[in-house]
Model the fold of this input.
Amino acid sequence: AEFAETLKYYQSEVDALSQFHDLKLVDSIALKVATIKQNLAKADDDARLYNARESLFGKPVTDYSQLKDIQKKFEPYGNMWESVDSWLKQHEAWLEGPFSELDAESVEQSAQTILRTLKKCEKKFEGVPGCLDVTRTILKDVAAFVPHVPLIIALRQKGLRERHWEAISAKSGKKVQPDESWTLQTVFELKLEENVDLIQKQS
Done:
């Protein structure tokens, strides 16, 4: 009976998620969503354990399909807020952190994963206007960022030396000299995407 009450509570928590759609509150919403995700995972373990005990003692096995329904309903909210939170934190770190420490492959992987996840969420939130807006807002940002990834990969190639930077600078007419002060923001300000082919050829 106590477990049934717990499930009822989780159900109400998940039902209430459609009301959260303020991007300014992303930290607290993402935290709430992460807590619900943990709680549902624990409930899933508990349900399996209770069923195993019932089977062991030859008792009728309780149907916990309600939990599966709650998990299914929760999934798009969990995926969306996790992705949004992850994107906002990572994107800021990528833009402002030292360019020399940027892991281009991990940037590519992360941006592509978030893009795919949010596209799926967009379909799921057709009838949930607030969450659909949040999804589309961030999806637009990620989609605008993804075309810059080949440039980041080209600039972070291991083999680029002083002579390569000199050649890129001479041919592009821009001072391309990555140093400690360089960030991804610097790359965008120099509009280096116009020279991505030139940079890729230097490797």
Observations:
- The mean pLDDT is 95.
